[in-house]
Amino acid sequence: MEYVAILVVLFVAFYLFVHQRYLKQDELKDSDYKKKGPLLNSKESAFYNALISAVGQQGVILSKVAMSKVLTPKTTDKKSWFIANNRIAKSYFDFVVCDPRSLEVRVVIELDDGTPLNKGKVERQKLLMHACKSSGIPLIGATVKHSYQVGKLRRLLAAHIDLIEADKEVRFCKRCGSPMTIKTAAHGDHKGRRFFTCSRQPHCTYTENYNVVFE
Q1: Which domains does the chain show, CATH number per domain?
Q2: 146-179 confidence digits (pLDDT tens)
Q3: DUF2726 domain: from which residue to which, for each copy (predicted)?
């Protein structure tokens, strides 16, 4: 009888080993994945680059951050907590600026993609405003553009982050989102005039009039 029991135990152990080693691997092979591409589109990337220049070493910028990673309901009632948490479970903040040491969120930035208002967009804006106001996290709204005034971003952020100071304007290329540099024309009809040129030259040849101002 003991011999039979030992055989049963060995058989069960062998079955579990095979199941764990091979069968589950076959199940995973049926669920292969591929990359979806960049986390941010070209306009969002340009804004992200502008934020990096505006914040400098005074903060860490994260994008597409789940609200539930930043916020938690205040209520202690289980039912109310579940309802409140469910409201933010599938939502995210476009950008958050965090303390560089603790990664505590200092400012939330919502980027308007320029699409027309609809019910879903309005509800999202209401949720963002209520969530940030009730939690005491500053919320800054920004519109999608290819070029941004870094100085303007600094002024907005300086109201909430003490070490950030407004500085001179920095522009970003409308084609690739890279920072632009200021040069002076050495030849031709515009000799002596200043202009912005993409820092990725000669790979990107975009230039811009120095006197153009973006709001």
Answers
A1: 42-158 (3.40.1350), 171-215 (2.20.25)
A2: 667 787 888 788 878 877 765 556 678 888 888 8
A3: 38-157
